[in-house]
Amino acid sequence: MHIFGLGLHILIAIYFGVHAIRTHQGLYWLFILFMFPLLGSIVYAAAIWLPDIRNSHTARRAGSTMRRMLDPGRELREARAAYDDTATVANRMRLGQALLADGRAQEALPLLRDAATGLYSDDPDLQAQLARAELEAGDAAAARDRLDALIAAHPRYRSPTAHLTYARAVAACDDRERAHEEFDVLVDSYPGLEARARYASLLAGWGETERAKNLATQSLAKAKQLPRHSRDLDRDWIKQLKELAG
């Protein structure tokens, strides 16, 4: 049992060591992990691994999806109640986001526009959400212009969701060359299969049938390698990819 326990500690240290290398942590973490396998792993998990997992896009997406599955209308109900109680900027923003997530972009737009004033007028996350609302409300040109302005004002800003919104907006503006450029990056960088499914659908709509089928087939092969919970999150996109693959 002692030998088994020691081996398990080493395996955990190796796992965290790989994580440290992939996420570009300081090399001193490797020293701590392998000089003190048990204590080092506990410290690394608390200081680096858990915050990274909690803050990852995939983790946030999984948590949000799970909450919607258990109680689909909860966030919208709570956001509306908070807004009705006190119409602060934060509550206006929260209700706008909840409406947008519920597919009600037209209702979300005025709330997000009102929120994007004063202190929040230059908030990149809010601007990105407002652009998404404009896109889904049918104004792709406004969404593209807003995101172009956001990129110019915050050149270091990074958001997979905003990037996908931009790619969708330029595609909706029929700028196919730019859409190809953006989606070619997104298929390998965007978490999950949404970007791949949307791109394959666009390719099919543009008459690039063979390329659409190839992308769909490759994406389905990738889906088989994903953990089950990830496939569950992307089940609608997987269904769409299967239809495109033929």
UniProtKB/TrEMBL annotation:
Pfam families: TPR_19 (PF14559). Keywords: Membrane, Transmembrane, Transmembrane helix. The chain crosses the membrane at residues 30-51. InterPro entries: TPR-like_helical_dom_sf, UCP030959_TPR_rpt-cont. It comes from the Bacteria. Signal peptide: none annotated. This is Tetratricopeptide repeat protein. It comes from Arenimonas donghaensis DSM 18148 = HO3-R19. The lineage of its organism: Bacteria, Pseudomonadati, Pseudomonadota, Gammaproteobacteria, Lysobacterales.
